[in-house]
Structures are given as C-alpha cells and as structure tokens.
Amino acid sequence: MQKLSGIPASPGIAVGRVHIHMEDQPPVPRFSVEENAFPEELERFRQAVDRAREELMKLRDRTETVQNGSNADFLDSHLLMLSDSEFLSRVELGVQESGRNVEWVLHEETQSVVRKLASLDDQYLRERSVDIHDVGRRILNHLMYRERISLSDLSREVVVVAHDLMPSDAIDMNKRMVRGIAMDAGGKTSHTAILARAFEIPAVLGLGDFSGSATDGSRLIVDGSRGLVILDPDEDTLRDYREQLSAYRKREVQLMSLNDLPAETRDGKLIHLKANIEIPEEVDAGFSHGADGVGLFRSEFLFLHAGRIPDEESQYQTYKQVLEAMNPKPVTIRTLDVGGDKIIPSLINYPEKNPILGWRAIRFCLSRPEIFRSQLRALLRASVHGKLRIMFPMISGVEELNRALEMLESVKTEMKAAGEEFSSSIPLGIMIEIPSAAVTSDILARRVDFFSIGTNDLIQYTIAVDRGNERTTYLYEPFHPGILRLLTMIIDNAHNAGIPVGMCGEMAGDPLATMLLLGMGLDEFSMSSVGIPEVKRIIRSVTMGEAEELVGTVMDMRSYVDIDAYIKKLMQERFDVRVY
Ligand code: PEP
Ligand code: MG
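Above: inputs. Below: predicted complex with phosphoenolpyruvate.
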C-alpha cells in the first residue's frame, strides 16, 4: 500500500483500477542510421503507416455508427493524407539524405508543413495544420510502439492517472467511464481541475511523479476531498473508504433537499447562485442542483472540443440550445478565452514565453476580429431565444473595454442593416480578473452593466503565482489580505456605480469563503453546480449582520495564515463545513 498526498482538486471518493494515460507528446528520439540499415528503417515506416490507416478506418466506422456520419469528415481527410505519395516519399528520401532515424525525419517533416500552413492567411489552410499534426503523431505513436488510447475511447470504468492531462483531453473524455483522476501536475484552479469538478469526478492533482510509480490495472483510491491517493490499498483501508463513500453520497442527497428553496439569508437578503458550465450538457447538472441560471459559460471549450474554430452557425446552435434550456433563467456567456493553458494549435501556433501573460482572451479576440465578430454575431442571433448576458474576459483597462464595445456595436449595426433580429436588452459585463482592472473598477463600472470577479486569475496575477503549478500552490491563497482588499474595492466600486457584482472564480464555490463574501456584499455566486447546495445551506443559516461582522474582524488581521485559521475554525464549528 502506498499513500501520497497532493492537491484536493475535485471532491468525492473514487475506488477503481488504474488507467495510465500517456502523454500526447513524448520526446521524439533522434539517432543516426547506417546506410545498410535504411531498408529496415523504411520498412518500419511503411508498417507504421499501414497500422495508422487501419486504426483510422476502424475509428471512422465507429464514428459513423455513433454519430450518423456527421463528424467523420476529418477522418476521411486524415486517411487521404496517409495515401499522399508525395508526403510519404519525402519522409523516405529524408531518411536516406540525412542518415537519421525515421521518427526524427517524420517529426521534422510534419513540423515544417505545420509551420508553413500555420503562417498562411487562408483560414481553411491554417486549420489544416492541426490535421497534419494529428496524422504525424498517429504514425509516430506506431513507430514508437505506443498505443495511446484516447480518453474518449475508454470502454471500462477506470481511474485515470496521468502526468499532465490537458483541458482538451479532459473535455473529450468519456465521463461515464472515468471514476477518478490522479495527476502529477496541476493546481486547484487549473482548467483540468475545473472540468473535473464540473463533471463531478473526484480528482487529486500535483502528485509529483506518481504516474511513474503506478501501473495499469492496479487498484487505486482517489480521495478528492482530502487530496490523497492510495495505491494498492489493504482490505481495511478499502472497507473504510467504501463506508466513507456511502456517507458522502448520503450527505449529497440530504443537501439536494435544498434545491427548491431560495438562497436567502435569515434576514431576507436574496443571493443568486448560478452554475459555471463548459459544455451545454452541464445545464442539466445546473438544474438538478438548483442553479438560478448560468453565471459563466466558458465558450472556449466549444473551440477546444472541436480543435478548430467552430463556424458561426454551429456556435449559434449551441448558444441557442443553452439559452432555451435555461429560459427564463439568465445565461452569461463569456466570449472566447483561449490562450494560457487553453491552447488550440490551429489558433495559437507558436510557443509563447509567457502564455499566461500573453496572447489570451480579449487580447486574442481584438487582434483576430474575424473570429471575434463571428462569435458576437452568433451570440446576438441566439439572444432572441432566452435571457442572454454577454461577458468579456481579461479586460485590463478602459481602452481595451472600449475597443471590445466598439466591435460589439459595429456588429449590431451591421446586423440591423441586414434586418437580422437580436434582443435589444442584452446586459454587457466584464470579468474582473486582472489587478489593473480591479484597481480601476470605479472607471470600468461606468461602462458596463455588471461585473463578475474571476478570482482564479485575479489571485494568480496579484500574488504572481501560476494557478496551475503544483510547486507554488502554498502561495495561492484566496484569504491573502491583498486579495481581500481588492475584493472589497471591486464590490464597493460596482455598488457605488449602481451595478451588481458576482464572482465566477473557484472562490465563489468554496464554502469556507461563503460568509465572508456575503458580508462583503457580493450579489451573485457562480460555481460548478455540485457546489451550489452547500453554499446555499450556509447562506440560509446566517444573517447579513453576522457576515458583515466577520468581514470587519478579518479585514483587521494582517496575515493570511491567521485569517485562514480563524475562518476555518468558525466555519467548521458553526456550519460543520468540512476542513481537511
Ligand atoms: C477566473 O479566472 O476566475 C475565471 C472564472 O476564469 P477562468 O478560470 O476560465 O480563467
Ligand atoms: Mg480567468
């Protein structure tokens, strides 16, 4: 039995068999090949191409059965590439000319084609670079004798163990088959952690080099609430965890009884509790946990899921689907926030030195107006199907906000001229997640209808601590006095300007923070649906007076260690909030 502690990223307990998920991009070997070994090298290449072809054909047959052919087109184009004699002979010639192994030559060749395509103006051709990359990887996997089972292909229940699962892997995984996740890398507010919570899959991240010591098929317990994993547990531990699992489920069921009750304090202040969603299917979880609407729809997951830019029509259909499902409850759709850890190779195809500080979100959208305008058009068209609110991410100051607003206005003008319908009352809001926006929130508040505080990034940028880095998690502290001062400043500035303020960062779903945020005057809390009942239970048990008193006490404290200890003790004693 081996016990290891990491970061509690998604609560709950999972017991199951390990499935090691291999990295998509292991280093490609590079070595010299003697001339007399060329024939063997070329034969290896041909066999790998044949196996890749068989694999693709099987995948296409299966996709056609499941999806009625609608999404199988890209598989056909991949198959076509595998028969492209020019591409194949370039690789073969490359081996003979360079005297290098075929893996390396193939890698170089595909990278060079990908780079060329990615630099073109033609959007269609640019997007093809992803296909070349995929096909190259598929052949490489066979050359390197790696069978990489995609998480969407899982056919038995497993606990996924990985070094670093990308958000794009997590969004595509077969959720019914993944009982738990254990990962070497990652922090509590990394997007993979957020997805695990959204899908209600217990997860422990930041486990160092755990994936190297676990073997496929061994038994593993993932305790996502305490941040523990136990490999090959003994019988007593297993029994103990099975009991804990049933107690956990019982508590969940009890909490669900609050679903139809309002989130109202004992002295009558009504709070809006909303759901954060990444895919339209999560709307159901929002309903079953009593959400008052969607407070954050991270639209970029549509793009990540497709691996390319979805066209205006398919975006419109998705937004419409969510709006109709929620109607008359409001839905806040955030415009594209790619970049950072959410990379779509066809959109951002060169490595940045500091992606978290780089070409992300609204910065990306303003410099790619064709993408931004198409999303805005899709949103405006969908607005007639429900209560849409539009929100811009990563606004750093008023100039950037003005440019985004101008773009929205010009799309509206264009649509009006074309006689296209859209709602005339769409509230427009921004995320406050960059310190400069927080500090100038009095100025920004005059230009918009609402704020939503993104604590995941606000904490990252204020404390200068990467939210996805397990080594610096100890610094990622929501109760840091610097963060609490910013939060009160933002909330007060919003209220002084007469606009409501919500929070959609992970802090909004942390029961330890509920009373404090309530006392600061937050109007709306938006979180993974699973967290709503517990936050509601706390809100319904306090008065605003008590919550405000807590803010007064805490704001006088100097260190986050003291604040953390004080709040944990209070919330545990008074509300039986679980503290691990
Ligand atoms: C945030 O930064 O708090 C937020 C909600 O946005 P995201 O987690 O998608 O960056
Ligand atoms: Mg953010």
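The domain at 2-23+150-240 is CATH 3.50.30.10 (Glucose Oxidase; domain 1).
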